[in-house]
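Reminder to self: tokens first, then the designed residues, so the page reads top to bottom the way the pipeline ran.
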């Protein structure tokens, strides 16, 4: 735990330092751009840093970088911190764009980026539509963060043990970007195309969204990028992939439950937000399989309405619970965690790292509602 806390502190510091250096560049262009830096700093100031921690665990899983009892800073740690920081900045960029796509008002209990820009427009009495300005500005903020994540990654790759490790880490990062973008498109596609798809395919399509929008990007890719940076061989990377994918699926299944039933004070988003956004998740697919015609019609009529009342949200929640879908998702979470942990059996990963990975499997999938 101490190693993980130390890494998180180092990532916080590196992101702060990086933004400070970029502030002088941006504000030299125009003082009007200070808001981009301020909003970036706000969006990067919180969060659990799961992706950075998974990158650290992947890095530590390679024997040469395994944690010791010594206070000596391991060789290559600075490069790992930069790469882990890149993952966090990329994640912030994805959240900014995701909130635009989903028309989300909040993120982590505070206004989302496009709502912040919208408020800025209104407070200054500028011309045109506040909403249009908010969306356009947030898109640009997300793009800026994407570029900054690449700069941080390059910084980390420059400190890699060798060029082969650096190229492999870069390849994995590039693959992650492609897959999460594809997964994001599939997510918005399913919200609109479900009506014309065969009923028997809806569950598989929902699982496909989980795999590419979240599971690979949230858990598997950070693990593999960290390990690749440390010089992992193909067998070591395959073990982490076999662990990371089912754990990532379990993590997103838990997040989907929170999106419907979560406490706003814990999640930072309104309870039932996924219902308003019309997310066609595994939870919804499993519910529809067991609903009668009337209940299924109610779900299809209400799901995706941004003006859902608290009473309608409660009605949808109860229908989903009564269908047995919540219990089925809980079972899927446990099955995927079991599969992930089984991938570590007999591996050469150092014992303390195995313990940390096992602990993390519980942390990211724990029931909190």
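Designed residues (369 positions):
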């Amino acid at each position: 735990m101490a190693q993980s806390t130390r890494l998180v502190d180092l990532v916080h510091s590196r992101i702060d330092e990086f933004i400070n250096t970029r502030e002088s560049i941006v504000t030299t262009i125009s003082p009007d751009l200070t808001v981009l830096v301020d909003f970036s700093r706000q969006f990067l100031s919180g969060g659990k840093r799961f992706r950075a921690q998974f990158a650290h665990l992947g890095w530590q899983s390679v024997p040469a970088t395994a944690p010791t009892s010594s206070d000596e800073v391991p060789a290559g740690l600075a490069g790992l911190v930069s790469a882990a920081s890149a993952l966090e900045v990329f994640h912030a960029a994805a959240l900014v764009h995701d909130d635009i796509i989903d028309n989300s008002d909040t993120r982590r209990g505070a206004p989302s980026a496009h709502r912040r820009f919208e408020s800025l427009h209104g407070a200054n009495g500028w011309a045109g539509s506040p909403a249009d300005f908010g969306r356009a500005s947030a898109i640009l903020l997300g793009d800026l963060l994407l570029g900054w994540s690449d700069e941080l990654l390059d910084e980390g790759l420059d400190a890699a043990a060798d060029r082969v490790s650096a190229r492999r880490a870069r390849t994995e990062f590039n693959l992650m970007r492609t897959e999460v973008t594809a997964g994001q498109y599939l997510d918005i596609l399913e919200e609109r195309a479900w009506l014309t798809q065969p009923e028997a395919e809806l569950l598989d399509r929902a699982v496909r969204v989980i795999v590419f929008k979240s599971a690979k990007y949230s858990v598997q890719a950070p693990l593999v990028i960290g390990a690749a940076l440390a010089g992992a061989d193909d067998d070591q990377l395959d073990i982490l992939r076999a662990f990371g994918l089912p754990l990532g699926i379990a993590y997103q299944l838990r997040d989907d439950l929170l999106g419907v039933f979560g406490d706003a004070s814990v999640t930072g988003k309104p309870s039932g937000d996924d219902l308003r956004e019309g997310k066609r998740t595994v939870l919804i697919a499993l519910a529809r399989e067991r609903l009668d015609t009337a209940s299924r019609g109610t779900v299809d009529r209400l799901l995706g309405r941004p003006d859902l009342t608290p009473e309608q949200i409660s009605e949808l929640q109860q229908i989903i619970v009564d269908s047995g879908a919540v219990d089925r998702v809980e079972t899927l979470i446990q099955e995927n965690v079991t599969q992930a942990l089984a991938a570590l059996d007999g591996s050469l990963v150092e014992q303390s790292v195995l313990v940390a990975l096992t602990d993390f499997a519980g942390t990211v999938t724990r029931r909190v509602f």
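The CA atoms of residues 222 and 279 lie 25 Å apart.
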